[in-house]
Amino acid sequence: MDIAAIAAGYTAAWNSGHPEAVANHYASDGGISINGGPLWQGHAGVTEMAAGFLADIPDMVLRCDGVRAAGLTAIYLWTFTGTHAASGKPVSVAGWEAWELNEAGEIAASRGWFDAEDYARQTA
Predict the structure, then answer these.
(1) Of the CATH numbers 3.10.450.50, 3.40.50.300, 3.40.50.720, 2.60.15.10, which one belongs to the domain with range 3-123?
(2) How confident is the model at residue 112 (pLDDT cuts 50, 70, 90)?
């Protein structure tokens, strides 16, 4: 499995500005939980999650800071920058996702993390 290619495709999906493109990197029953919050599951759930982030930061640019894998488990490190839609303030947020991949290279489960307090401070 080419984890670098998976990470590059995922990064490009976010940078496309199309929530469905992000969801297409997940298994049909895959999902993501952010900062220990509720699970956004299935294509519709992941699309909704991505749409929310892209609405908040419409000019988002996501950068892959690194990726590591062992078997079907991976860590995807990222930073996104952009302008917060409501406040007009610039933001720069770093975080990571812990992925469980399936044999097809799709994300079956993701646990994402970022500093929510720092994000709130930047957007206030």
Answers:
(1) 3.10.450.50
(2) very high
Q: What angle do CA 40, 25, 89 make, to 5 degrees?
A: 65
Task: Please give the model's pTM, rounded to 2 decimal places.
Answer: 0.95
* Residue 66 identity: G
CB neighbours of residue 6 within 10 Å: 20
Distance (Å, whole) CA 52 – CA 111: 17
Identity of the residue numbered 5:
A
Mean pLDDT of 23-45: 97
Q: For position 1, what pLDDT does the model report? A: 85
* Residue 81 in tokens: 């920058």
Query: 96 has which bridge partners?
Result: 77, 113
**Cα separation, 51 vs 45, whole angstroms:** 10
pLDDT in tens, 74-83: 999 999 999 9
Buried b (16+ CB within 10 A) or exposed e, 41-52: bbbebbbebbee
